[in-house]
């Protein structure tokens, strides 16, 4: 009887996952119908976000900044930001091994410091906040590795990259077309 319940639950979960994925896949972007350029259409908001992003990075290790931005971009399925930040990380000297392991950092902890793992866990919890909030243990682990000011900076950075991901996805930014200079 337990097996049937488990099988039924697993089948229902698989069907729900498949349906959710199929629905997401059905919403492909029609590249022949370009979307607005957010920076040009909302310049004050865009400049404010650039300022917020710059302020969020202050005092944080640049390697950690890129790890956080890459992980949030993975979770948000933002190819534009993922491409941009993996390239930025490479330019800053990040190893290919670590870049390949970010998505599976829990299974590859030896590639990352405890502090980086705490930041990645917090990034995941904040990025997926609708899935159950930020668990106390995840927050406590981050607080054990960052003082209050650093922790606030990490949170601000997570907020910023999640906003950038949403802008890139909403406006259909194409990976590989980074126009920063």
What is the alpha-carbon Rg in Å? 18 Å
Structural class call reads mainly alpha
Q: Give a quick account of the main beta sheet: strands, pairing sense, barrel closure.
A: none
Number of strands: 0
DSSP strand content: under 5%
What is the straight-line distance between the termini? 62 Å
Percent helix, as a range, is 55-70%
Treating each run of at least 4 consecutive H or I residues as one helix, how many helices? 9
Overall pLDDT, averaged? 85
Q: Runs with pLDDT <50, length 5+?
A: 1-25
SSE sequence, one letter per element:
HHHHHHHHH
Shape: globular
Supply database-style keywords.
single chain; 181 residues; mainly alpha; 9 helices; disordered N terminus
Give a topology summary.
Blueprint: H1 2-26, H2 38-41, H3 43-57, H4 62-75, H5 79-91, H6 96-101, H7 114-127, H8 136-145, H9 148-170
Commentary on this structure:
With 181 residues, this protein is an all-alpha fold. The chain is 69% helix and 0% strand. It is built from 9 helices and no strands. It has helices spanning 2-26, 38-41, 43-57, 62-75, 79-91, 96-101, 114-127, 136-145, 148-170. Helix 4 (62-75) runs parallel beside helix 7 and helix 4 (62-75) packs across helix 9 (148-170). It is globular and about 45 Å long. The model is unreliable at 1-25 (pLDDT under 50).
């Amino acid at each position: 009887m337990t097996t049937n319940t488990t099988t039924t639950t697993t089948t229902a979960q698989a069907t729900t996952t498949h349906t959710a994925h199929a629905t997401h896949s059905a919403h492909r972007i029609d590249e022949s119908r370009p979307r607005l350029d957010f920076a040009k259409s909302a310049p004050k908001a865009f400049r404010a976000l650039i300022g917020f992003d710059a302020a969020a990075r202050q005092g944080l290790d640049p390697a950690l900044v890129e790890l956080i931005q890459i992980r949030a971009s993975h979770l948000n399925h933002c190819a534009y930001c993922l491409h941009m930040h993996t390239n930025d990380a490479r330019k800053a000297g990040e190893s290919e091994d670590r870049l390949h392991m970010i998505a599976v950092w829990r299974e590859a902890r030896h590639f990352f410091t405890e502090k980086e793992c705490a930041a990645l866990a917090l990034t995941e919890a904040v990025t997926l906040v609708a899935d159950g909030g930020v668990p106390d243990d995840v927050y406590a682990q981050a607080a054990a590795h960052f003082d209050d000011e650093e922790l606030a900076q990490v949170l601000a950075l997570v907020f910023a990259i999640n906003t950038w991901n949403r802008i890139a996805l909403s406006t259909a930014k194409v990976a590989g077309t980074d126009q920063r200079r």
